[in-house]
Amino acid sequence: MGLKERFKEWDKTYVWHPFTQMKDWLESDPLVIERGEGVYLIDIYGRRYIDGVSSLWCNVHGHRHPLIDRAIKEQLEKIAHSTFLGLTHPPGAELAKRLVEIAPSGLKKVFYSDNGATAVEVALKMAFRYWQLKGESGRKKFISFVNAYHGDTIGAMSVSGIPLYTEAFRPLLFPSLRVHAPYCYRCHLRKTFPGCGMECLKELEEVLKKHHYECAALIIEPLVQGAAGMIVQPPGYLRRVWELCRHYGVLFIADEVATGFGRTGKMFACQHEGVTPDLMAVSKGLTGGYLPLAATLCTEEVFEAFLGEYHEFKAFFHGHTYTANPLACAAALGNLEVFEKERTLEKMSHKVDLLKKELEKFWNLEAVGDIRQKGFMVGIELVKDRDKKAPFSPEEKIGQKVVLAARKRGVIIRPLGDVIVLMPPLAIGEWELSLLVEAVYEAIKEVTER
């Protein structure tokens, strides 16, 4: 057995993969990625694949971008890590400044953590503690949404709304006030947009009216519920939710972990509708897909509630060993520099239009029930019966079969159940974008039209 095959053997013997049914994995022939180059992933045999989901929604400018590579190398020659507890360092301070400059107006302070879930945990704890410090200790609840996903830590799961991910852990979670989010393809009110007038907002307004005095915050994925299947909210919904929070005096938390850093066509999704959150969680694309790093941004008002004398113990008692790791901060600064120098967002506009046009042909496939797109975030929902919107059974593993069929065509994707997700790096060229879409089209056709 050669070394390349031993990698597979060692993996099956010693590794437990996330969100993976390991029984299936142990019976499979694992794909081992060894290198990356631009928008391509390269396996141990030298085969190249288009990275169709940005290595789980985080790669922005492609793999091995020279500017980000250089930023990390230059920082490595200085120091790899130093605690951020009671100390600071240049890349951490500079990155905070840059984030505030590009964030929705009103966000003035940056608290670092390690990943999307921890950024959400920080926001939840900040909001909870904020009201205690303001003398309103009765505000202990959070408003969240059906089909929401905010991470896999206990607090993040508590405000998530996908039973598959949370139900087994229900005894560990704190209750939240959960309301329906818009899912226009499968509207729970059986309405049709825009004639519905976004009637789904009434439930939220009723909850706010009845419970605002006991609520610390509302948390939402702005514009797109990612893990739910790329469910895109109708225009104006996000802003109306924000306005209701302001009216009833409830803090507004924007979870921009998946939607941030250009995925929707603007740097942050909130900017599409002029929404200025009280707290905002970011991660994934923050370092361009290089290193783990997250941040929770907040307003000056939230920050000032934690100011006091030492003996008052108003400090925010939360932190991680690798908070604001200098290498990760350097990567993030390199990422933002690429955005600026290469005019990434400006160049995206034409590619977003091209992607929309390319997706139109998917309606020719009988198994395609819905196509949802916001910027470079795409969900293609596959159904067994288009007229009845009837889903395939889990036993059929349609989404997984499409993944394998796409892989044969040189494309790496990962589904959400039977929703086929496309979220390529923002740097993808038009030709490669067309190749990606064509490969996925043919993969769906192969699997569903046998």
Description:
With 450 residues, this protein is of the alpha/beta class. The protein has 2 domains: 31-61 and 343-448, Aspartate Aminotransferase, domain 1; 69-341, 3-Layer(aba) Sandwich (Aspartate Aminotransferase, domain 2), CATH 3.40.640. The chain has helices at 3-14, 22-26, 54-57, 66-76, 90-102, 116-133, 154-158, 163-166, 201-211, 237-248, 300-304, 326-341, 344-359, 398-408, 430-448, and strands spanning 33-37, 40-43, 48-51, 107-113, 141-145, 177-179, 215-220, 224-225, 231-232, 251-255, 279-282, 294-299, 368-374, 377-382, 411-412, 419-422. The protein has a 7-stranded mixed β-sheet, with helices on both faces. It has a 4-stranded mixed β-sheet with strand order 1-2-3-15. α13 packs parallel to α15 and α14 (398-408) packs across α15. It is globular, with a radius of gyration of 22 Å. The two termini are 37 Å apart.
